[in-house]
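Fold this: Lipoprotein
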Amino acid sequence: MHRERVVRLLLAGALVMTTPGCATGDDADPSPPAGPTGGWRTAGCEFHHPPHFTTLGSRRLPATPPRLTAAMERIDRAGRERFADSFAGLEVDQARVRAIVYRVPSEAFDAFIRNTAEDNCVVVRDAAHAVAELTEWHDRVVADLPYWSAQGIHITTVGSRHDGAGVEIGTLDLEATRREFRSRYGDGAPLVLVEEGPVRPLSTAP
């Protein structure tokens, strides 16, 4: 899964608005120390979990084992409903058969993850911002889209990052957008600006 988020695509304006979700993991594995900050791992990470595969036609593709999928769904659901001030998002690392959860350090949420992981490997990493905060910023920016359009600022995408880094804003003009956003939202706003053009719909040959 890569950024499993609710996506609304307006083809006329080519605007994507998303909410936090999950993504595929990368190869980085810094082995964080245990504790409420810095990250930690569940006991299931001490055991070998063979990679899971599925067959699609003649192709053999990596897949997420059902038990790990179920654990991720429990953590995601509780993170949004019960621990929204801590949970930021999650991703799956299919090659290493593990889930990675991003959260603002919380003893209560950490205890839930530890208890619900069962024998699965779940790596917990620090996040700067939780889903509740990023959802508020996401909705604020989306509500301001008519204002930005009137100012000549072209916003192409708005999506909360699953790692809690901030709300990612795609724009055609980074410098102008950064200047105007700083004036309206302040320097401390968790907004990550990236240069990104409009999303274009896929076309198929007749």
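The first strand starts at residue 7 and ends at 10. Helices lie at 66-81, 107-116, 131-143, 145-150, 174-185.
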